[in-house]
From TrEMBL:
UniProt cross-references to InterPro entries, sorted A to Z: Zincin_1_sf
Protein name in UniProt: Metallopeptidase family protein
Gene3D superfamilies named among the record's database cross-references: 3.30.2010.20
Length: 97
């Protein structure tokens, strides 16, 4: 996870607001939730510029059939959420060839 964040933030814009990252087991969902369980969330920080990205371990791991797929899912989720926070297309911040 740390490698993914480091690689993406090195490619991201220097003026991009910081992003805190947390990992939780699963999201707290309201009773009667019928949609797919989210694998992550991102929210603006309240006291300072930046965002907080939360990755939910159980939804991510249960959607991955192998270690390689888990790694790919983490990459995709982090790219998508950082692109939302930074208002950039994911391909502009993806450091992979």
């Amino acid at each position: 996870m740390a490698e993914v964040m480091r690689a993406i933030t090195e490619r991201g814009p220097r003026s991009a607001p910081p992003v805190e990252v947390a990992v939780e087991e699963a999201p707290l969902l309201p009773e009667g939730w019928a949609d797919e369980v989210p694998a992550s969330s991102i929210h603006p920080l309240s006291a300072e510029p930046g965002h907080r990205l939360v990755l939910y371990r159980l939804p991510i791991t249960t959607r991955s059939r192998s270690g390689a797929e888990l790694e790919e899912n983490v990459w995709d989720i982090v790219l998508l959420r950082l692109s939302e926070a930074w208002e950039l297309p994911p391909e502009d911040i993806d450091p992979r060839p």
